[in-house]
């Protein structure tokens, strides 16, 4: 009781946006449900560089802003703060992704190592899938053709990413594709439902009220024959059998042991990877398309850069690295259109003291106000303006050998991929894929909004941003 009282006193010291009384905070919680973005912007402005808290139905979130506090979180160790516990609760990972994935996320190490290492060798496959996917989903027509942006991009990104993860022909299978796209939505919906139940009933709620078990069955149908074949080859010829594919299933089997080698466990890891990769990358590329259509004056310089680099060295993972304007355009698009107002959610495993003396008691959740930081004049000049080549100009003034301003670099004021020990390990692939997608679009298409319309408003679900899925972008074969 004493410890709970001390924790309450520490929490009370952190200012609240909205009412903070035991009962009135529920009114704030309802406001936060619909308007958490506004509350985060308000708190950031009011308590600059400090912490504030916003209420939720079940708990407070302590929101921190300013580079110093981000740095404090970046440096914190895994026994002080936990990414898994915070995110695990938001998506009810134990009951949606499965206990195995939640408690033993060894596949994350694979994304950081084998997957990222494979990008040079596997780039031709990824590029081939981009070309084929575009020719099927957005054929280059002489006249303008209207394309529903987000759902179409989702299909292209899903098959392109899965060309790397599981290869041909599965990456093109329509049922496998829709299953992976839907899985993320099922998990988010399931998490909302499961969160309404007390802990003891959560496992039952997960099984009875959600579509997750059905998705696992559906994924197993596709993956079982592939996994069984791989296991058979391994049994016959040993670990390094000839023509062993260089893909995620191989990388998993290279390190998996005992129960990690079951069909169910391996299937869950494929679903978990798609969960992390598909919606994030698809939303990012949809925002890029919207920005391309809204600010078309960037297109000539982008084309010039892509063509010049390809002429010199062809299109490879390494040559994409030289396309700085392309990188900058995508980075700017995510600065203004990233997928939420909060990032770097962490659960405190012990009382945590920030450099400014703010104490967040054990068991509470902290997140970084990344949206206001991306819109802060102290971090970015003319912050509301979309300047596609902002980061390319900053890179021009960098000392050779430093690349602080390229998109994959983590920053204390650019938090699209988080920061610290749990920063997105998939960002090298994500940026590589986004650049290859954008290069393909500027080389082959003209892009515009219908009726010369401007950039559409995004949709917000609490602090999460989604590009409007009903918006179309027009494409035609490149003329100029
Ligand atoms: C534009 C696309 C993407 C965005 C914006 C994005 C963003 C993020 C963010 C914000 C985090 C949490 C970081 C933190 O809290 O510090 C994260 C984690 C993660 N991301 Fe990404 N991501 C993207 C694409 C991908 C892709 C393509 C993959 C896989 C190939 C991936 C795999 C992961 C994994 C496994 C984690 C968990 C890391 C951990 O637990 O340590 N992401 N991502």
Automatic annotation (TrEMBL):
Keywords: Heme, Iron, Metal-binding, Monooxygenase, Oxidoreductase, Signal. Its cofactor is heme. One of its GO terms (molecular function) is iron ion binding. It comes from the Eukaryota. Pfam families: p450 (PF00067). Heme binds at residue 424. Belongs to the cytochrome P450 family. This is Cytochrome p450.
């Amino acid at each position: 009781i004493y410890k709970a009282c001390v924790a309450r006193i520490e929490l009370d010291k952190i200012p609240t946006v909205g009412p903070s009384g035991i009962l009135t905070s529920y009114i704030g919680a309802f406001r936060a449900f619909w308007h958490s973005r506004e509350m985060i912007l308000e708190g950031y402005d009011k308590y600059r560089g400090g912490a504030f808290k916003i209420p939720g139905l079940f708990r407070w979130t302590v929101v921190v802003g300013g580079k110093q506090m981000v740095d404090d979180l970046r440096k914190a160790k895994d026994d002080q703060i936990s990414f898994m516990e915070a995110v695990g609760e938001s998506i009810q990972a134990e009951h949606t992704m499965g206990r195995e994935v939640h408690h033993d996320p060894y596949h994350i190490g694979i994304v950081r190592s084998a997957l990222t290492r494979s990008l040079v060798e596997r780039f031709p496959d990824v590029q081939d899938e981009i070309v084929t996917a575009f020719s099927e989903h957005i054929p280059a027509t002489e006249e303008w053709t209207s394309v529903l942006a987000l759902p179409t991009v989702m299909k292209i990104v899903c098959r392109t990413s899965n060309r790397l993860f599981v290869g041909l022909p599965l990456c093109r299978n329509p049922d496998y594709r829709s299953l992976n796209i839907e899985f993320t939505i099922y998990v988010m919906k399931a998490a909302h439902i499961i969160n309404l139940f007390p802990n003891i009933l959560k496992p039952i709620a997960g099984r009875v009220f959600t579509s997750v078990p059905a998705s696992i069955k559906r994924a197993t149908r596709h993956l079982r024959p592939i996994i069984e074949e791989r296991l058979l080859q391994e049994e016959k010829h040993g670990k390094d059998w000839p023509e062993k594919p260089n893909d995620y299933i191989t990388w998993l089997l290279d390190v998996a042991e005992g129960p990690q080698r079951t069909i169910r466990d391996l299937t869950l890891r494929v679903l978990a990877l798609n969960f992390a990769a598909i919606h994030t990358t698809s939303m990012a590329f949809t925002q890029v398309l919207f920005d391309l259509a809204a600010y078309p004056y960037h297109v000539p310089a982008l084309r010039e850069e892509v063509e010049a680099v390809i002429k010199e060295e062809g299109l490879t993972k390494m040559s994409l690295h030289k396309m700085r304007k392309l990188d900058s355009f995508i980075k700017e698009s995510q600065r203004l259109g990233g997928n939420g107002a909060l990032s770097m959610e962490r659960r405190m495993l012990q009382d945590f003291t920030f450099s400014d003396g703010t104490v967040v008691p054990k068991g509470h959740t902290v997140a970084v106000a990344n949206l206001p930081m991306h819109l802060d004049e102290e971090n970015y000049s003319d912050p509301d303006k979309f300047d596609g080549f902002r980061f390319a100009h900053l890179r021009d003034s960098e000392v050779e050998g430093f690349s602080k301003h390229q998109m994959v670099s983590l920053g204390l004021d650019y938090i699209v991929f988080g920061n610290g020990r749990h920063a997105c390990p998939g960002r090298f692939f994500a940026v590589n894929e986004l650049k290859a997608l954008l290069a393909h679009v500027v080389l082959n298409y003209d892009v515009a909004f219908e009726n010369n319309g401007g950039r559409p408003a995004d949709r917000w679900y609490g602090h999460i941003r989604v590009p409007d899925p009903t918006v179309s972008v027009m494409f035609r074969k490149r003329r100029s």
